[in-house]
Amino acid sequence: MLVVPSTLDAVTVHAEGALCTRLASVPCERGNVPRQVRIEGLPLSLRIGSLRAAVLQGPAGLSVREVRPVLDVRLPPEADLPATQRALEEAQEKLATVSAELERLQRDLLTLRNLKPSFPPRPKDEPRPPREPALTSVLALADFVDKELATLHTRHLELERQQRDAVTEVELRRRRLEEGSSAVRGQRAQLHRAVVLTLSEAGSEAVAPDARVQLTLEYAVPGARWVPGYDLRMPRTLDGGSLRMRASILQRTGEDWSQVRVSLSTARLERRAEVPELKALRIGRRQPLPARSGWREPPPGLDELFTSYDAAQPSMPPPAAPPPPAPERTRVREFAMPPAPQRITQSVLPVVGGASRGGPGGGAPPPAVSAPPPPPSPAPSAAPLSAKRKAMAPVMRYQEEMDEESVKELSAEPAPSMDLLEEGEDTAPLTVERARSASRPSLPAEAPAPAELEPAVDLLDYASLELGSARDPEARGRLHPQREALSREQLVVLGVHLHVDVFALIASSEQEAEDLQQEEPPAWCVPPDHSTPHFDDRFDVETRVEVPSDGRWHTVPVFSAPVGLSPEYVCVPSVEPRVFRTVKVENRTPHALLAGPVDVTLGDEFLMTSPLPTLVPGATQRLGLGVEESLKVSRNTRFDELSGGMFNNNSTLMHHVRVELANRTSQRVTVEVRERVPAIPPSEKDIKVEESEVTPPWSKHTPPPGETPVEGERAWRLTLKPGETQTLSAAWSVRIPSNKVLVGGNRRT
């Protein structure tokens, strides 16, 4: 098998997860394309069911027949270990050395503490020795113990300090290793994914000796996110500017994205997007139901395919001695348990071999499976009962889901009258397991096969199927689900003697990907799937970028958005006597500008960060840029209340407003000044509002899309030259009955 290197070429980051594309170049040795190639170094967290491979460049007729995932264990040499891993191992070795020496010193201290000087015992009849030599020895021993204890205590304090420093160093090195990229994390045994690709034979076209076959491999990985953001740069005069879209990408997939083409998608990677099947309704004759995709009819003569294999097998030796006859139940009657009509699930085993007519590239045959009629049953004396059961068994296999109670009731019934039981047959009592096995036998030879059969769901998952062994007459030549609880790749790894916890590493990588979803995005950022609930979009990054697998947010530029920027100054003196800078942003791109923060820069100075809502193509939104201190505004009001009418039964409320606006900038500016007159509800027909003496004339304000309209709002729009001052005035009257008072008071200025 040829191991070929591969490079990560493109990555599509979705709302949760990413779709990676790798390129591999396969050399042709002597003009021959290898049948199997192996691509290693894939991340451990990739989704097995997302693997796709294709031939980008190669001879005509060459295709990828099989994509099989496996596990790859690497033992890197010392030179390839990262510096952080090497430093961690050195710190751990130093900690182990200090801890061992400290433990040995503690044992020495305990031994010295137990060393207590004492006088040796002597017999009673022995004369008393002189006291002076013994006392001198005891004092010398006590002095020795004190000096040694003082030396060991000093060394003990030094070793404790070294141990604390070593523990701190190990923790620091471990944290640095965890904060680094997960793609270069240096374990002694590194576990990766690998893929084995099986290629088909090329056509009759000749292949050059130095030719290369270009392969592409696609797979999905969790543990990647992105959020949009923007950068708005405008001159201080607000005439023009540019809006650039950027993206903050967070990934911990296990591999660094180095110089890759990145695309950003708002769609969810795990969402099912199957094309619905529209069934036609026809009037007239009944039409057969269309076959399901993936169905394959068993080839004719499948059982005869293994005739020579069965003939070559040695026959089973006869039993040593026939079993003794049972005292009472010497006769059994062969019976077939009738299947319950509500509890039978018919499943047909797909078959390997032959041309496929049910795959993606062609129409599927009808689901009804034609089978040759079973041979006639031989006489009881000519063949054993087991051969008769085999001849009576139908071609289709039935899986019956029976209830425990029904089986127990069946087993509790007394045995009926029985035919002769051949030697070697089982005469044990009927149990639940035996009843289930007895429920599979056979249908009568004259019973026709079902007209329509639907394959089980697990039989259409071809990646998890395996071919039955030739020693199993019921499953050979057919595909069936794997009986092992573990996948094939896990069984391969279990057969290798490695000191690696494979399942723990896989679970750890999956847990890291799940924990990545809990990371808080930057301020004002909105997840892309939240700002586009009804549509999905894709953005292609202009240049190749690098995003390490370290679990941190990295900002990359996406593209420069061609938008329309119209600067405006807005003032609402009745609310705030200040003039605010705004800019109208019109989306002229074919994409939707998603909601996110926008950093505003005026000239060379950063101004502020504002939230930008989602803008569909052609939409307009006003973006605030803060207060313009060079534009001064003041507002003066006057209120008069008059009585009128024939019997003084009406009150007239006169409101006068005067606004002065001064331009202290060095360029011409256009300012929109907004006022609001009282709005009368339709139910109050006896209240009137009249506008008068408006200089210059104002107009009703129409808010842009996305802004809430304000009832009774009016707007002046004027242009001021540098150093110019203009005065705006307006008056309106509110006529109400004398017995009514406006809510909140009559004064409305």
Automatic annotation (TrEMBL):
<dbReference type="InterPro" id="IPR025554">
    <property type="entry name" value="DUF4140"/>
</dbReference>
<feature type="domain" description="DUF4139">
    <location>
        <begin position="215"/>
        <end position="737"/>
    </location>
</feature>
<keyword id="KW-0175">Coiled coil</keyword>
<dbReference type="InterPro" id="IPR037291">
    <property type="entry name" value="DUF4139"/>
</dbReference>
<dbReference type="GO" id="GO:0016829">
    <property type="term" value="F:lyase activity"/>
</dbReference>
<feature type="region of interest" description="Disordered">
    <location>
        <begin position="289"/>
        <end position="420"/>
    </location>
</feature>
<feature type="compositionally biased region" description="Pro residues">
    <location>
        <begin position="363"/>
        <end position="381"/>
    </location>
</feature>
<feature type="coiled-coil region">
    <location>
        <begin position="81"/>
        <end position="115"/>
    </location>
</feature>
<protein>
    <submittedName>
        <fullName>Aspartate ammonia-lyase</fullName>
    </submittedName>
</protein>
<dbReference type="Pfam" id="PF13600">
    <property type="entry name" value="DUF4140"/>
</dbReference>
<keyword id="KW-0456">Lyase</keyword>
<feature type="compositionally biased region" description="Pro residues">
    <location>
        <begin position="315"/>
        <end position="327"/>
    </location>
</feature>
<dbReference type="Pfam" id="PF13598">
    <property type="entry name" value="DUF4139"/>
</dbReference>
<dbReference type="InterPro" id="IPR011935">
    <property type="entry name" value="CHP02231"/>
</dbReference>
<feature type="region of interest" description="Disordered">
    <location>
        <begin position="685"/>
        <end position="713"/>
    </location>
</feature>
<feature type="domain" description="DUF4140">
    <location>
        <begin position="11"/>
        <end position="109"/>
    </location>
</feature>
